[in-house]
Each structure stands twice: as structure tokens, then as C-alpha cells.
């Protein structure tokens, strides 16, 4: 018997939070997610991942539920594996952002996530998932068409330092955040965050923030964690996240999210 009713919506980040370090969903976590849905609550994956990285997760959870991808820019139906809503960065904004960053920060290289697929400049060092996927499309221009997410990579600067710089330069044009240990900044359309997408989805279902529990580990999760009625960080989270949440659970490799869900449901 719980002293408080179970949440009506569970929102969780994936990489570094619900997934193990190797990117897998443990059987314990799969079972905990099933308990959430069997109770009648809504389960939402809220991730910086693009839809093209969601196949393994969708299979592990038997293609149930919705995913908020690309930090809120894309709403992805795991059942149909289709994008059902998009919030893109317009071409004129992309052009201005890239021009401002190139003029003020040397050695930056860019990539872009589209609704379907991605492209990168030749010097952009791909992350693990993309490296394993093999050949990747290179772009003569990353500003040729609207995109869900613009990524800027610096070979030497740390993520926190680079984020502060990017925010100061183009924060009036896009919303910048980061979720990586390397100097990689992720930019969405102005005002688009994990929180804005989650709040809109919750409102459609008549769910208040107070009825939501959210889990995260990196700065791109902070808007969502601040919005949710109850927030958890995993023990391996970024210091800013650990300082901002209501509760801390065990690390991702110890199934910290599942441990909490087993108690709530």
C-alpha cells in the first residue's frame, strides 16, 4: 500500500538513465515498464535520440507507447514507427546560427538530424551508434533544409564550457543543450525542450505535472525534471542534474529507474 497514488505518467530518458552503459534495456527494466502500462499509466520515453536510433528500444518494449525524440523536436509512435509531430529549425535560422558560431568559435564542425536521416560535415566525428551503422551521409551544406536538431562539435572544448558559449551567441535563435561527455552541443528550435513536448502530451491526456514522475541524467533532461511533479536522477548523473532533482536512485547499470518503478507500481 502506497502513501501516495501512483503517477499517471512516467517519463524517462534513455541513454545513461534507463539503458545500461552498453545501450541495452535490462529484463528488469522491461518488466518495470510493463508494470507501468499494465497499471493504466502512460509511459513516455523522452530522449535526445533521433527516431532512427529507436529500433532496439522499440523492440525491447514490444513497440508500446510514444517517444519524444531529438530533445522534444519529434514525437515518435513506437507502435507504427512513424513520426507524428515535428518542431523543426527553419532554414533562415539555421543559416544565421551556423554563421554566428563559425564567426566566433574556431574549429566547430556540424551535423544535422532530419525527420528521416541525418547528414554531417566531413570533419564531424561520429558517435558510437553512427560509427557502427557504417557509411554516413556527408553534407555540402547543413543549412539546406529544415532540421530537427543541429549539432556542433568542438575537438577540444568541454561540453559545459561550449554550451555556455553557444547559448550566449545564439540562445536567442535556438535552444541549446548537451547530453554527452564530449564537446557536443545539441540545438533545437527556439523554445523546444523535452519539457515543452512532455507538457503538451500530458495536457492532451488530461494529466497535470503533479501526476508525472520523470527520470534523467544529463543537462538536456533538466527542463523535464523541473516541470515534472516528482523528479529522479540516477546516481551517475551530471552534477547539475543531481543538484536539481527531488530524489536520487541507483545508477543506470544498477537498474535505478526500475528500482523506483517497482516501488511506485
TrEMBL record:
Q: Which N-terminal stretch is annotated as signal sequence?
A: none
At the top level of its lineage, which domain of life is listed? Bacteria
Keyword annotations from UniProtKB, A to Z: Hydrolase
One Gene Ontology term of the molecular function aspect = hydrolase activity
Q: What name does this protein carry?
A: Cof-type HAD-IIB family hydrolase
Amino acid at each position: 500500500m502506497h502513501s501516495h497514488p501512483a503517477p499517471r505518467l512516467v517519463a524517462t530518458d534513455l541513454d545513461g538513465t534507463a539503458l545500461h552503459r552498453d545501450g541495452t534495456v535490462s529484463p528488469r527494466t522491461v518488466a518495470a515498464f510493463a508494470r507501468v502500462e499494465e497499471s493504466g499509466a502512460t509511459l513516455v520515453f523522452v530522449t535526445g535520440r533521433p527516431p532512427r536510433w529507436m529500433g532496439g528500444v522499440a523492440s525491447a518494449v514490444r513497440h508500446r507507447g510514444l517517444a519524444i525524440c531529438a530533445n522534444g523536436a519529434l514525437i515518435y509512435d513506437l507502435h507504427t514507427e512513424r513520426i507524428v509531430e515535428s518542431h523543426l529549425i527553419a532554414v533562415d535560422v539555421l543559416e544565421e546560427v551556423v554563421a554566428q558560431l563559425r564567426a566566433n568559435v574556431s574549429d566547430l564542425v556540424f551535423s544535422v538530424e532530419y525527420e528521416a536521416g541525418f547528414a554531417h560535415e566531413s570533419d564531424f566525428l561520429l558517435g558510437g551508434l553512427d560509427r557502427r551503422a557504417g557509411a554516413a551521409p556527408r553534407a555540402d551544406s547543413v543549412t539546406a533544409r529544415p532540421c530537427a536538431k543541429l549539432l556542433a562539435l568542438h575537438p577540444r572544448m568541454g561540453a559545459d564550457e561550449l554550451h555556455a558559449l553557444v547559448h550566449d551567441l545564439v540562445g536567442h535563435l535556438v535552444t541549446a543543450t548537451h547530453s554527452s561527455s564530449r564537446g557536443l552541443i545539441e540545438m533545437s528550435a527556439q523554445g523546444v525542450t523535452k519539457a515543452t513536448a512532455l507538457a503538451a502530451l500530458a495536457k492532451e491526456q488530461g494529466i497535470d505535472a503533479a501526476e508525472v514522475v520523470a527520470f534523467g541524467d544529463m543537462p538536456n533532461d533538466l527542463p523535464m525534471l523541473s516541470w515534472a511533479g516528482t523528479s529522479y536522477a540516477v546516481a551517475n548523473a551530471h552534477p547539475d542534474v543531481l543538484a536539481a532533482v527531488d530524489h536520487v536512485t541507483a545508477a543506470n547499470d544498477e537498474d535505478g529507474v526500475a528500482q523506483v518503478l517497482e516501488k511506485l507500481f
